[in-house]
Amino acid sequence: MLYWLGRRLLTSAVTLFGVVTVTFVLARVVPSNPAAVYIGPLARPAEIARVTKQLGLDRPLPVQYARYLRNLAEGDWGTSLATKEPVLGGIATRLPATLELIVSAMALAILLGIPLGVIAARFPARAPDVLVRVGSVFGISMPVFWLGLLLQALFSGKLGLLPATSRLSLETSVLHPIPHLTGFAIFDALVGGDWSGLRDAATHLILPALTLAAYPIGLVARMTRASMLEVLGQDYIRTARTFGLGERKIVWHLALRNAFPPTLTIIGLSFAYLLTGTFFVELVYDWPGIGQFATNALLNLDYPVIMGITLFGAIGFLSTNLLVDVLQARLDPRVRLT
Amino acid sequence: MSAAADWASAAAAAPEARAGVLRALRRDPVALAASTLLALVVLTTLLAPVIAPYPGQGRGTADVAARDLAPGAAHLFGTDHLGRDMLSRVIMGSRPALGSAAAVVVLAVLIGVPLGLAAGYFGGKVDEGLMRLTDLFLSFPPLLLAMVIAALLGPSLVHAVVALAISWWPWYARLARTVAQSLRHAPFVDAARVFGVRAPAILARHVLRNALTPILVQATVDAGTVILAIGSLSFLGLGSQPPLPDWGLMVSDGRTTVLTEWWIATFPGLAIFVVALGFNLLGDALRDVLDPRSGR
Fold first, then answer.
1. Residue B79 forms beta bridges with which residues?
2. Which end of chain B is more exposed for a tag (fewer CB within 10 A), N or C?
């Protein structure tokens, strides 16, 4: 196990090195002048020359690459051309808002997706199954940004039930700010005993989290259904039935345990989807997270931020894959770690 | 992934099995409904300028007198901020949407399949190198690499297509590799080699033919995702630029006024959804027929 983990970590590190190289190459081969972007639209040639030197863009590419690697290792991920803040710090301050979204969407996907899949597999080709199958295909076919706008139009525009945008109401953020502990609004409000703040943060979270969860709910439900159907057809389930075990116990205990590993893989994939799905949800709901940071950078060609977020996303993706593999092995002794 | 390998072996089987697949599909009501839906969409795409009530507006001509009209008899889907008929815009938008999705898949196949065939056939170092390369490309969260490439190339539909193809080819490379691996010592391949046929010719004439069906299946399964991906890039402003009729761009156009003029964002998004749904349903049906384990 340790040997396997060591090798996995090593290959991940090699891949990560490749990722860093890809981001560097991408940002350097593209015809646009970072120095000009850094200064802004009123740049004069002399200024551009000065900033080019300051950013080290006049050096040969291998030298720039070596410097980029060294800086990354030292925790210096560059400075945003647009906001002039350090990239790593910019990611860190926005991370709690994004994690709040991703974690709630993931929780929805697991808490709704798995039971829906199990129920569908329990009544194959009958009403619940058809509903779940249709619903899950709908979920994975909807453009996430469109779903977000529809929910906004319905729940805030038509019904006036929930706020349409942002993370907190102005009243809360300006007049009664939630005491800052971790940056996770809900957690901070809970710990600080700020009940009106908690209510405000929760109502703002509902729509974005639901929007982001639609796709993973669909994925998880259909995968759970498929693997449950396979497991329910096996001999040991029939044996359990002949022994007169209750159907509920058979389905939720005996079968689900063996149907879970494929679902876990899909949960890992869903997480990867959420990493970029949140870009769109944050744009639609004006949610101040990493996604907004990223989309602004993409549209303004803010290279250091683009490179930083790409690297950050790849790290998140690689570690999820690693975690899923480890969990897989713990859950299923038949999985051989090679 | 592993499912792809399953179809690869299932679909690389004999031609009679392929005929059986078609027959099974024709009996499946979902597959039938999805194919009908997609046929209608393709028909709309082909006849777009004829069907669109205001083809000029569909292409981008403004009509400022008729701005932001709610759906009604004259404009079934309403009009946008520049007074253009949304129904015409949505109909005309089917062309760039389907055209670019097809282009992405074709490009990804053209890059991925030759590489994958070569890797699977030759094995060894070539194979190892290619697999590491696909690993690298697949270690970015979906869409992230495409978004970055599209942004760096400068926003346009062509660049979005190129960006998506660059991040999509590894899937096809892996699929083609699986087929080539399973066939590299098949009797007819060995026979061709004995007769002195060179490797490129063997790959093109004998191995590729067997890879076509799984590639076609994979392309169908992927098409829905590609449509969504293109819509997503356009929505961010990394695809088509105004005044082109592009579904993602139109949704983005109606984003800020969705609480009042809901129709501007709703109908183009609905179009993306319907096309993606059609492909996903058809892909599901294909998968069910080819891989009985996926359960029915």
1. B85
2. N
Instruction: Give the nearest chain A residue to B155 (CA atoms).
Output: A299
Q: Is A206 on the interface with B (CB under 8 A)?
A: no
Low-confidence residues of chain A: pLDDT under 50:
none
Q: Measuring CA to CA, how many Å separate A190 from each of A95, A96, A194, A195, A202?
A: 19, 15, 6, 7, 11
Contacts of A313 in chain B (CB under 8 A): 140-141, 144
pLDDT digits (tens, 9 = 90+) for A119-130: 999 888 888 888
Identify the helix (H) or strand (E) that includes residue B154.
none
| CA separation for the pair A244, A262 (Å, rounded) | 28
C-alpha to C-alpha distance for A194 and A115, rounded to whole angstroms: 33
Q: Which residues contact B65 (CB under 8 A, 6 or more apart)?
A: B83
From the list B142, B236, B280, which residue is nearest A137 (CB)? B280
pLDDT digits (tens, 9 = 90+) for A186-229: 888 888 778 888 888 888 999 999 999 999 999 999 999 989 99
Taking CB atoms and an 8 Å limit, are B141 and A273 in contact across chains? yes
- Beta carbons of B254 and A149 less than 8 Å apart: yes
Structural domain for B214, as ranges: 27-54+76-290
Residue A18 with chain B: CB contacts under 8 Å: 132, 136, 139
Mutation site, A102, A149, A271, interface B, largest B CB count within 10 A: A149
ipTM of the complex: 0.87
In chain B, the number of structural domains is 1
**pLDDT (average), residues B189-202:** 86
Two structure tokens written together for A290: 């990493």
Take residue B197 and report the two structure tokens written for it: 């046929």
CB neighbourhood size of B145 (10 A): 27
Distance from CA of A173 to the nearest CA of B (A): 23
Percentages of chain A per state (helix, strand, coil), in multiples of 5: 75, 0, 20
Q: Which residues of B touch A146 (CB under 8 A)?
A: 251, 265-266, 269-270, 272-273
Among A257, A34, A224, smallest CA distance to A121 is for A224
* Residue B85 β-bridge partners: B79
Q: Which domains does chain A have, with CATH numbers?
A: 2-73 (no CATH), 90-337 (1.10.3720.10)
Nearest beta carbon to residue B142 from set A225, A273, A310: A273
Chain-chain contact of A301 with B152 (C-beta, under 8 angstroms): yes
Q: What is the CATH number of the domain that holds B252?
A: 1.10.3720.10
A310/B144 touch (CB, cutoff 8 Å), yes or no: yes
Output the CA–CA distances (angstroms, integers) from residue A282 to A97, A138, A152, A276, A293, in the order listed.
Answer: 10, 22, 13, 10, 10
